[in-house]
């Protein structure tokens, strides 16, 4: 397993990439992650013991282009705050335990080309805002 956390200088606010896939990480994502406003990429997939809710503070990462949290044990709703990530191109939350209805605000993610929320416990109807707003989407997976 490899790990990478990149940025410039020693300033933690300058970290622009966190790649910690396949690292047997445990616990929850801290809300303080939202303070790393220079982040462009978060890839924490395949850490099967990462759990708990997704922190709404993820929506504060205004420069985020890729959020890949596949194959973990996150539970609870998809935070509506993710709809504020205007630069996001990839949102991959598949194979977790996410539940509830999709927030209509995800329709604000007009730059998303990959949206994968498959193999979760999501319910309800797909908000019309989601399909109307994501005009750039190339890959769109919502099946359970």
Alpha carbon gyration radius: 14 Å
CATH superfamily label = Ribonuclease Inhibitor
Shape: globular
CATH topology value: Leucine-rich repeat, LRR (right-handed beta-alpha superhelix)
What is the share of helical residues?
under 10%
Flag low-confidence runs. Answer: none
Task: Work out the number of β strands.
Answer: 12
* Whole-number tally of structural domains: 1
Proportion of β residues? 25-35%
Subcellular location: Membrane
Pfam families: LRR_1, LRR_8
InterPro entries: Leu-rich_rpt, LRR_dom_sf, Plant_LRR-RLKs
Keywords: Disulfide bond, Leucine-rich repeat, Phosphoprotein, Repeat
Explain how this protein is built:
This protein has about 140 residues and is mainly beta. The protein has a single domain (about 5-140), classed as Leucine-rich repeat, LRR (right-handed beta-alpha superhelix), CATH 3.80.10. It contains 1 helix and 12 strands; from the N terminus they run E-E-E-E-E-E-E-E-E-E-E-H-E. It has one helix at about 130-135, and strands spanning about 5, 15-20, 25, 40-45, 50, 65-70, 75, 90, 95-100, 115, 120, 140. The strands form 2 sheets. A 7-stranded mixed β-sheet has the order 1-2-4-6-8-10-12, with no helix packed on it. The protein is globular. InterPro entries: Leu-rich_rpt, LRR_dom_sf, Plant_LRR-RLKs.
């Amino acid at each position: 397993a490899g790990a990478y956390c990149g940025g410039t200088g020693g300033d933690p606010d300058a970290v622009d990439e966190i790649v910690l896939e396949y690292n047997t990480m445990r616990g929850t994502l801290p809300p303080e992650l939202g303070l790393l406003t220079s982040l462009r990429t978060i890839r924490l997939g395949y850490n099967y013991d990462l759990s708990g809710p997704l922190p709404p503070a993820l929506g504060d990462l205004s420069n985020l282009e890729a959020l890949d949290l596949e194959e973990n044990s996150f539970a609870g709703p998809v935070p509506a705050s993710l709809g504020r990530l205007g630069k996001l191109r990839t949102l991959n939350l598949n194979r977790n335990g996410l539940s509830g209805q999709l927030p209509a605000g995800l329709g604000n993610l007009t730059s998303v080309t990959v949206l994968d929320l498959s193999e979760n416990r999501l319910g309800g109807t797909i908000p019309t805002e989601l399909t109307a707003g994501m005009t750039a989407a190339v890959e769109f997976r919502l099946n359970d």
